[in-house]
């Protein structure tokens, strides 16, 4: 019995991927920084054309979302995420990918039971807990303001 356990542990160790934490951190920092740099350059260029800064920032975000959805549809986003990791997945580009991926995957099941039911399977918890935590922090802030007045 002990020999089988050792064989199983050796098998698991042989098929488990090895990750370099420092490489992952470096790639995430570089890719996230490049995305932010590109977004800032885009916003600055739009401001230079006479657009208000808030409007330029909104157009930049829309551009990043559109680019992310296009790359997801072309099956390029996943390849980028495999190489760059969290740097690509954490910004708004990753959120757009998390909505577009299930929509593409389940489109064969129809608009209602495929896309409609599955589109927020990944992004839904993020939205839910984002709203819940912001509500909770709002209550804490309200309570703090009531106590300090």
From TrEMBL:
Keywords: Membrane, Transmembrane, Transmembrane helix. The chain crosses the membrane at residues 25-47, 56-77, 83-104, 116-144. Pfam families: SpoVAC_SpoVAEB. It comes from the Bacteria. PANTHER family: STAGE V SPORULATION PROTEIN AC, STAGE V SPORULATION PROTEIN AC-RELATED. This is SpoVA/SpoVAEb family sporulation membrane protein. It comes from Clostridium segne.
């Amino acid at each position: 019995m002990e020999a089988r356990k050792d064989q199983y542990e050796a098998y698991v160790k042989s098929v488990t991927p090895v990750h370099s934490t420092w490489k992952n951190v470096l790639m995430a920092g570089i890719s996230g920084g490049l995305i932010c740099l590109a977004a800032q350059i885009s916003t600055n260029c739009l401001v230079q054309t006479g657009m208000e800064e808030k409007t330029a920032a909104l157009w930049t975000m829309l551009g990043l979302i559109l680019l992310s959805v296009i790359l997801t549809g072309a099956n390029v986003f996943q390849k980028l995420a495999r190489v760059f990791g969290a740097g690509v997945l954490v910004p708004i580009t990753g959120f757009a990918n998390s909505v577009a991926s299930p929509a593409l995957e389940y489109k064969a099941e129809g608009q209602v039971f495929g896309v409609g039911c599955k589109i927020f399977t990944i992004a839904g918890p993020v939205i839910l807990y984002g709203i819940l935590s912001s509500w909770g922090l709002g209550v804490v802030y309200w309570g703090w303001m009531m106590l300090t007045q």
